[in-house]
Amino acid sequence: MAMHAEEIENLIKEGLPGAKVHIEDLRGDGDHYAAHVVYDGFKGLSRVQQHQLVYKSLKGRMGGELHALALQTSAPE
């Protein structure tokens, strides 16, 4: 079963309080999304560490309910 964009956004915001999250359904199929996440907690972390935090917030849904997620992460300027 595919996930809805708002569910992905809510999970990320729950796991990363205060994050600004924008989700885009890349193919309109509910399986391929892009997420842009800006989060103060990313300061000083590598890109891999930032992505790991986002994946952790998705609570194991990556690769199951959520097939593909292109991530763009950054700390606020």
TrEMBL record:
Pfam families: BolA (PF01722)
Source superkingdom: Bacteria
Family: Belongs to the BolA/IbaG family.
Protein name, per record: Transcriptional regulator, BolA protein family
Protein's organism: Kordiimonas lacus
Taxonomy of the source species: Bacteria, Pseudomonadati, Pseudomonadota, Alphaproteobacteria, Kordiimonadales
